[in-house]
Amino acid sequence: MNIVLLGPPGAGKGTQARVLVEKRGMLQLSTGDMLRAARHSGSAMGKKVADVMDRGELVTDEIVIGLIDEALDGAAAQGGVIFDGFPRTLPQADALAALLRKKGTDLHFAIELRVDDEALIDRITGRFTCGNCGEVYHDRTRPTKAEGVCDICGSTDLRRRADDTEESLRQRLWEYYKKTAPLSGYYHALGKLKVVDGLAPMAEVEAALAAILDVD
Ligand code: AP5
């Protein structure tokens, strides 16, 4: 089963995608993670996108569609793919449909994690992740058990994202409402949209996603 996780920055897409990977053997394709990896590696593309990402703007459709195309080519058959943070524009949504068609498969659901903007500032400014395994934490709602040490892999490389500031979040939200929110209508028209309350506790969001995926 292939799904898209939709929702503004901080809605919980990455957090829930990791649960689906662990519990269902699905493959998480996060364009945000791919772009951050390109930055980290110092590649020409990574340098090109760095400032755009820090400002909270969207990278070009051409770059992210290329990344997904490449990742899908290398993807082994698993329990399905979770598209996390992709598509974010209507052209990206059309491109995803074409790429899946080319691979002889389809998108089953686009699941929107619906949240209030008010909650996002706290979620974004309190977030940190493990630089080694990618586990996502929060200062208040999901701290590590031992301070400064990842619960999952024991790494002490805990990082905060350069774009997790209030200023960048404002721009990211603006981009979301202008360019990504119309995708809810797009997937609704295709009969694929499901909406989940992203403000609920993490375990409840997880259960709501499971109820959607288990129906098929
Ligand atoms: P990307 O990395 O995709 O960031 P984003 O969409 O802004 O989403 P986030 O990762 O910030 O949030 P999330 O929903 O995953 O929340 P999380 O689970 O971490 O993109 C970054 C940038 O890359 C973009 O701005 C753009 O420049 C570029 N880019 C990426 N894809 C692109 C594309 N397709 N096209 C063009 N440009 C692209 O949770 C957040 C926090 O909340 C965590 O601390 C977590 O512990 C906590 N939390 C999660 N769920 C709950 C809950 N239910 N209750 C309480 N706390 C919770």
Description of the molecule:
The structure is a single chain. With 216 residues, this protein is an alpha/beta fold. Helices cover 50% and strands 15% of the residues. The chain is built from nine helices and eight strands. It has helices at 13-24, 31-41, 44-55, 61-74, 90-102, 117-125, 166-180, 182-189, 202-215; strands spanning 3-6, 27-30, 81-84, 109-114, 127-130, 136-138, 158-159, 193-197. The strands form two sheets. It has a five-stranded parallel beta sheet, with helices on both faces. The protein has a three-stranded antiparallel beta sheet with strand order 6-5-7. α4 (61-74) runs parallel beside α5. The radius of gyration is 17 Å and the shape is globular. The protein starts with a strand and ends with a helix. The model has no long low-confidence stretch (mean pLDDT 94).
Rg over CA atoms, rounded to whole Å, is 17 Å
Give a count of the beta strands, DSSP E runs of length 2 or more.
Answer: 8
Structural class: alpha/beta
| Secondary structure: helix percent | 40-55%
Bound molecules: BIS(adenosine)-5'-pentaphosphate
Sheet with the most strands?
5 strands, parallel
Oligomer: single chain
Q: State which percent range the strand residues make up.
A: 5-15%
**Strand order in the sheet with the most strands:** 2-3-1-4-8
- Please work out how many helical segments DSSP would assign: 9
- Output the helix-strand order: EHEHHHEHEHEEEHHEH
Query: Overall mean pLDDT score?
Result: 94
List unreliable stretches of 5+ residues: none
